[in-house]
Amino acid sequence: MRPRILDRYLVTELGGPFLFGLSAFSLIFSATNILAISRLVSDQHAPLGAAIAYFCWQLPFIVTFVLPMAMLLGTLLALGRLSGESEITALKAGGVGLIRTVSPILVVGLFTSIVSFALQETIVPLANDRAVALREDTIQRVGPFGGGGQHTVITNLPGGGKQVTYFGQYLAATQELLAVTIITYGLDHRPRVIVFSDRGRYELPSWTFENAWVYNLNPDGSVGRESIAPHEVVDVGEKPSELQERAADNNRESMSRAEIKDIIASGQLSPQELRSYQTTYEEKLARPFASFVFTLIAIPFGLRPARGGGSTGVGFSLAIAILFAYFVVASVFSAVSTSVPGGYLTSAFFAWLPNVIFIAIGYAALRRAARY
């Protein structure tokens, strides 16, 4: 089981194309973020250092997303070169079977999957929290009166008008809002009621604010009546699960599986929301192992050398085609999983089904290539 010269040689050959693929795909997926940062600096006059830090905190999510793509392209290019220079043929002539030859590459693919999962569950949620905090506190300075570190929820009222809720912090463990200001606007867009409270707790189906100061305003803006309510009940417009998702930049993909599980266990999700969270929960376990899946399916394709040069272009074309097919299949099964009633077992079945299908295709193609 100790690595041999052949194993080290193949891993070394894979290293260069893998790093090339990681850099290329990271740059492609970072292009939109780079443009967004330039707009933050030019349009919102955000500090350049803060904008660069915001971009850097987004990089872990991008890296975990492109790791499987890098393994796919790296395997295609590395094996394409080895096959094109007849090194694979020489190994076969020396009595080394094809499956034994590519075994170290498969091990690297599995190791990359484990690393991707570890990054997704540890580094990415922390980095995303830092990016969101930096964007709101330093760059955009979101707040009701221009202050930083505050969050906003806007709710349209049934009879017209709207309600705007500002809060300084959300405590997920206790489902509490801190430093809350609630302003209710009428049809004429003038404030009608203003509520101040230091703390609010979610009590199904609404929020209860402790020792709230309530100001009822006249049409001319003067205070018609003010009172102190020990327990003021207000429908903020968002449940704790939605607030926690907002804290993760409205993106379940930016949460860890532990965070998603906590939201599911809160019991505040609708049936449709519950299916969506369960699907994401299982997909975040299955998706990192796409690195191994792509490595397996890339091996038989990489053994077909490009004729007349242009191996990098052919490798890119094959990588894009395989990625497109995989993500189309994964998207279809994800949509089915969120629409079909069921629990974790159903979500896990549809989350792992794309991997199982492509592993079967890759294994069959590899066995076929090994016979020749």
What descriptive keywords fit this protein?
372 residues; alpha+beta; six-stranded antiparallel beta sheet; elongated
Cross-sheet strand order for the largest sheet: 1-2-3-4-5-6
Kindly report how far apart the N and C termini lie. Answer: 26 Å
The largest β sheet comes out as: 6 strands, antiparallel
Instruction: Please trace the helix and strand order, writing H or E for each element.
Output: HHHHEEEEEEHHHHHH
Low-pLDDT windows of residues:
141-149
- Rg, Cα atoms, Å: 27 Å
Number of helices: 10
Note the beta-strand portion: 15-25%
Helix content: 55-70%
Category by helix and strand content = alpha+beta
Global outline: elongated
Mean pLDDT: 83
Q: How many DSSP E strands?
A: 6
Structural overview:
This protein has 372 residues and is an alpha+beta fold. The chain has a domain at 151-239. Helix content is 61%, strand content 17%. A 6-stranded antiparallel beta sheet has the order 1-2-3-4-5-6. α2 packs antiparallel against α4 (98-139). 31% of the residues are buried. Mean pLDDT is 83; it is low at 141-149.
Question: In terms of topology, how is this protein built?
Answer:
Elements (H helix, E strand, L loop, with lengths): L4 H39 L4 H37 L2 H7 L4 H42 L11 E6 L5 E10 L4 E10 L5 E13 L2 E12 L5 E12 L5 H8 L9 H9 L5 H16 L3 H13 L8 H29 L4 H27 L2
Antiparallel strand pairs: 1-2, 2-3, 3-4, 4-5, 5-6
Helix pairs in contact: 1-2, 1-4, 2-4, 2-8, 2-9, 4-8, 6-7, 7-9, 7-10, 8-9, 8-10, 9-10
